[in-house]
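Inverse folding, one chain.
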């Protein structure tokens, strides 16, 4: 058995029913598969938890932190929900699109950065909120974007 299988079984042992470990199992599988969940990841999780791959995929599809398509090494998430929209989220998003050369939902050709929108990052009083690799930047204005991208590129 693989290291992933053993890791999932180990997590599942902490729960009364192994199916309850599906979220941490999916997280482990996503780490193992380079930041996203290809079909074999669902087979791995299903085998370890005695579920079906379709069930595992259905659960993953509900949560924003699971990626069903390949993503870049870095993730830039711009909140475009109403509180952020009212203070210029669209302009911030367009600044990122211009700086990175991709549209929202796309990854840069070098595979480094995925840009996407999110529905609410939970920082509504400090919009526009931008989350870069799980780190919050708030508030972000269009004129801040070049510096954020420069820092991201330097960290690569
Ligand atoms: S609306 Fe942007 S953080 Fe909530």
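Residues assigned per position:
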């Amino acid at each position: 058995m693989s290291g992933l299988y053993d890791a999932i079984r180990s997590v599942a042992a902490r729960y009364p029913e192994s199916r309850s470990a599906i979220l941490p199992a999916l997280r482990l599988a996503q780490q193992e598969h380079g930041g996203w969940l290809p079909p074999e990841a669902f087979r791995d999780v299903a085998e370890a938890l005695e579920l079906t791959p379709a069930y595992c995929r259905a659960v993953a599809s509900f949560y924003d932190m699971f990626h069903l398509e390949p993503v870049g090494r870095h993730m830039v998430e711009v909140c475009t929900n109403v509180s952020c929209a009212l203070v210029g989220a669209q302009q911030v998003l367009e600044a990122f699109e211009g700086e990175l050369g991709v549209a929202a939902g796309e990854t840069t050709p070098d595979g480094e950065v995925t840009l996407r929108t999110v529905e609410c990052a939970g920082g509504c009083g400090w919009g526009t909120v931008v989350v870069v690799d799980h780190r919050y930047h708030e508030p972000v204005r269009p004129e801040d974007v070049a510096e954020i991208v420069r820092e991201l590129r330097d960290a690569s």
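The chain has two domains: 3-62, 74-155. Residues 79, 81-84, 120-124, 127, 129 surround FE2/S2 (inorganic) cluster (CB under 6 Å).
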